[in-house]
Amino acid sequence: MWLADGWKEYEVIDTSNGEKLERWGDYILVRPDPQVIWDTPHDAPQWKKKNAHYHRSNKGGGEWQFFDLPKQWDVHYRDLTFHLKPFSFKHTGLFPEQAVNWDWASGLIRRAGRPVKVLNLFAYTGGATVACAKAGAAVTHVDASKGMVTWAKENAAASGLADAPIRYLVDDCGLLCASIYSTFVVVLLFCFKLSHISNRPLAPHGKTSPLLLTGSPIS
Fold first, then answer.
1. Predicted structure pTM score
2. Is-contact 152 123, C-beta < 8 A?
């Protein structure tokens, strides 16, 4: 198991009874996590100092309860900057555990010794996109949500990559792959459910596949 232990501005402070207590920069959030099946005392003082708490509903979904949290704030990972904001289904716009994949992909790019083109599918708000671009790759960022693509552009700009060779596409990842997949050296595929593309071939028949890095967020 690889640990995303390079963070300075994110940490899981405590976990108990289906929830995790996290620090995101200067702010403390409590969010649900079904993997937390133990019920331990809330000894950490930050439980009583939370800035926001996401309550999951028994009927599905849930809602945020805010105490003292801005509509948007920033966190930094190494030389990258990300805009955060609470939105639907407990999310903040970033999966910090994916930082270990950003580091790995960045290392591959820096050691390649040649130009690298990266296709980032289901690219969300662009964590992997900005990491790969910062490492020197030309990145094509693809997500079906226009809002997520806009957010990714903002993260790139905040990380000093406004003029980097990043191409942003609002498109269906499965359909797009059939035409451009084999033109890339690295394909990043970090989506919630791989079933989204399970019935669609990623590469046309007879085409050579690039390095495919896959994974799914766990929170």
1. 0.85
2. yes
